[in-house]
Amino acid sequence: MSELAAMPSDFTRALAVVAHPDDMEYGAAGAVARWTAEGKKIAYLLLTRGEAGIDTMEPAEAARVREREQRESAAIVGVTDVEFLDYPDGVLEPSLALRRDIAAAIRRYRPELVITNNFRETWPGGALNMADHRVAGQATLDAVRDAANRWVFRELLEDGLEKWDGVRWVALPGSPHPTHAVDITGSFEASVASLRAHAAYLAALEGELADPEPFLRDMAEQAGAQFGCPLACSFELLTM
Ligand SMILES: [Zn+2]
Predict the structure, then answer these.
(1) How far is the CA of 63 from the centre of ligand 1 (A)?
(2) Which residue of 50, 56, 146, 220 has the lowest C-beta tally within 10 Å?
(3) How many CB atoms lie within 10 A of CB 38?
(4) How many angstroms does the Cα of residue 174 sit away from the middle of ligand 1?
(5) Nearest 5 degrees, angle CA 58-CA 15-CA 62?
(6) What is the pLDDT of residues 60-93, one digit of tens each?
(7) Residues forming a β-bridge with 34
(8) Cα of 195 to ligand 1 centre, how many Å?
(9) Which of 180, 175, 158 is nearest to 123 (CA)?
């Protein structure tokens, strides 16, 4: 019997809210590629431009390069709505301003599914997670509630953003406690190409993260073994 349940497929719009360029590509791009091929509309909201992510490149240049790479990467999996907020990479704070900006995006896109960073302390296998991911994931979960309450962040109403209480699930790729999965056997190659689009970022990396194919394949095979298919993408699914 499968250890993971099937991800819901009865949705038409999803919004991914993550801290950095490459966060979707290291976790959920295979699922996104499958969903967009099925006609679902998916948008990405990046909280930072990942400008502190390349040790050998000045942040101002890294911000430009990484924004461009993220747009190319998203297009490969069928995502053309890519927005960037200008929060600082590496020092993302759990602020009300951050929640308000995410809530505003949720009200604009009106998604049924929100995908965000794993905000647990660790990754599967026990490696420690980082602060930006914990902050982004938690703020996004809170912003889903904020988006649904007309009396929270009332200035959004003045901007014409009516409440949106249609988010049914929040999904965390890369969670150490996965509950659901999607078969990505048919979209795995697109997910690899999507990560490879982060060329400048990958060129500056060393170790297992620098080569997208084996890293993503290993992750997808492990999820596939738990789900009962060759390659899968797993999520911790929170029902709202
Ligand atoms: Zn990240």
Answers:
(1) 14
(2) 56
(3) 10
(4) 11
(5) 5
(6) 999 999 999 999 999 999 999 999 999 999 999 9
(7) none
(8) 13
(9) 175
| Residue 207 region by backbone torsions, left for phi larger than 0, else alpha for psi between -120 and 50, else beta | left
150 CA to centre of ligand 1 in angstroms: 31
Q: Give pLDDT tens digits for 83-137.
A: 999 999 999 999 999 999 999 999 999 999 999 999 999 999 999 999 999 999 9
C-alpha 162 – ligand 1 centre gap (Å): 30
The rounded distance, in Å, linking the Cα atoms of 38 and 10 is 11
Token pair recorded at residue 44: 């990405």
Distance 99 CA to ligand 1 centre (A): 18
Q: What residue segments make up the domains of the chain, in order of their start?
A: 5-239
CA of 75 to the centre of ligand 1 (A): 19
CATH class, range 5-239:
alpha beta
Q: In the structure encoding, which two tokens stand for residue 210, read together? A: 């620098």
Tokens 């709505």 locate to: 81
Q: Are 90 and 52 in contact (CB under 8 A)?
A: yes
